[in-house]
From TrEMBL:
The lineage of its organism: Bacteria, Candidatus Daviesiibacteriota. Belongs to the polypeptide deformylase family. PANTHER family: PEPTIDE DEFORMYLASE. Removes the formyl group from the N-terminal Met of newly synthesized proteins. Requires at least a dipeptide for an efficient rate of reaction. N-terminal L-methionine is a prerequisite for activity but the enzyme has broad specificity at other positions. It comes from the Bacteria. The active site is at E132. This is Peptide deformylase.
Length: 171
């Protein structure tokens, strides 16, 4: 299993709902978590099915120190208040952008056991969920940057203090 890179058409797939939690799906979710953990700089905090060329609605996200599996997610409500996030993606290395996202969302989804979960999410976790939900709907963050008339940045390395440096770019 590996992460596909843009412009791979798998990233544009609108996924189908998972009909049944199978042993194969559970194995795939575990493999996705393992793969996401291999990304260190920047750290991998989420990975959607489309990023590994699969077409069902699921992803994994890092919640504090553990990963959770999210199957058939649905946004129930979203805060009116938004925040501009500096966003990147494992499928588009070294490209970053400013994306406005809701600071809070309420979502329902199944976990890897098939249990229905409903959660109110805020801050970084809400942002990661929105990014991954976009992925399973065939949307990449660059689409959001363009529709919001935001800016793109290219990772240029680290300065003397070890801080990441970026340069504005056009796509």
């Amino acid at each position: 299993m590996q992460v596909v890179k843009a412009p791979n058409p798998a990233l544009r797939v609108q996924t189908k709902q998972v009909k049944k939690i199978t042993p194969g799906l559970k194995t795939t979710l575990k493999e996705m978590i393992k793969l996401t953990k291999t990304f260190k700089d920047p750290e991998g905090v989420g990975l959607a099915s489309t990023q590994v060329s699969l077409n069902e609605a699921f992803f994994v996200v890092k919640d504090k120190e553990k990963f959770i599996s999210v199957i058939n997610p649905k946004v129930i409500s979203a805060s009116k208040k938004t925040k501009l996030y500096f966003e990147g993606c494992l499928s588009t290395p070294n490209i970053w952008g400013e994306v406005k996202r809701h600071i809070g969302i309420k979502v329902s989804f199944m976990d890897e056991t098939g249990k229905l979960q409903t959660k109110a999410l805020k801050g970084i976790l809400a942002w990661i969920f929105q990014h991954e939900i976009d992925h399973i709907n065939g949307i990449i963050f660059q689409d959001r940057v363009l529709e919001q008339k935001g800016k793109f940045y290219k990772f240029t390395g680290k300065d003397k203090t070890g801080t990441d440096t970026f340069e504005e770019m056009t796509i």
